[in-house]
TrEMBL record:
GO terms for biological process: autophagosome maturation. It comes from Phodopus roborovskii (Roborovski's desert hamster). Belongs to the LIX1 family. Coiled coil: none annotated. Signal peptide: none annotated. InterPro entries: Autophagy-related_EPG5, LIX1. It comes from the Eukaryota. This is Lix1 protein. GO terms for cellular component: cytoplasm. The gene is Lix1.
């Protein structure tokens, strides 16, 4: 495990000094990103601390974890370094997300990551792939919106549609979400993703009982149609 702290020398200006993507050093990229956040005096006192872990392996897939300031933890594995230059891969999308959020605070970036966790959880990312939207388009589109009541309502509507197709799935998902939230709380983990899942599912159940035939607002800017037409 490698601990990098805020006493490290800050690299000269950000992404233009990164190595070419074909030999992308993800560790250096992440460290430079968080050091730039320290310059902006972000909220947390441990802003400069990033923890990297690599799991021992004699061959691919090679698994690594990075724990970011504030406690968020991400893991990924790729078979070749070329995947880092491919925006259709997870590490390529993460690279693009870092680049496009260099001017934002850590909390703004963390919120965007939570949005994409939720989109993956409720099946929206899969639906977007089927419409041939690229990951860059999805990231650029959702970067415009905050995780607010409007977005929660939109995601709740997705689950109402799922409930119509598979009665009982909402209650099942809510029970699972409550269990995950409780386990994460006891483990001292960051809770935003788990809490948002609970809120969205609870909202969906409330809407079902209050309005047996809910429908999407005609001006819903977060619809798949709006995204597919966004360029």
């Amino acid at each position: 495990m490698l601990h990098l702290n805020s006493n490290c020398h800050i690299a000269e200006s950000s992404l233009k000094h990164l190595v070419p993507a074909s030999i992308l050093n993800v560790v250096s990229m992440l460290q430079e990103f968080w050091e730039s956040k320290q310059q902006q005096r972000a909220t947390f006192s441990s802003e400069g601390l990033v923890v990297y872990e690599s799991m021992p392996s004699s061959g691919p897939p090679f698994v690594s974890y990075v724990t970011l300031p504030g406690g968020s933890c991400f893991g990924n594995f790729q078979g070749t370094l070329d995947d880092a230059d491919d925006p259709s891969t997870s590490v390529g999308a993460y690279h693009y997300m870092l680049e496009s959020n260099m001017g934002k605070t850590m909390l703004e970036f963390q919120e965007l990551m939570t949005v994409f966790q939720l989109l993956h959880w409720n099946g929206s990312l899969k639906a977007l792939r089927e419409t041939k939207c690229s990951r860059q388009e999805v990231i650029s589109y959702y970067s415009q919106y905050s995780l607010d009541e409007k977005m929660r309502s939109h995601m709740a509507l997705d689950w109402i549609m799922k409930e119509r197709e598979s009665p009982g799935i909402l209650s099942q998902e809510l029970r699972a979400a409550l269990g995950e939230l409780e386990e994460a709380r006891k483990a001292g983990q960051e809770l935003r993703f788990y809490k948002e899942k609970k809120e969205i599912l609870s909202l969906a159940l409330t809407q079902i009982y209050s309005d047996p035939d809910p429908s999407s607002p005609s001006d819903d800017q977060l619809s798949l149609t709006a995204l597919c037409g966004y360029h």
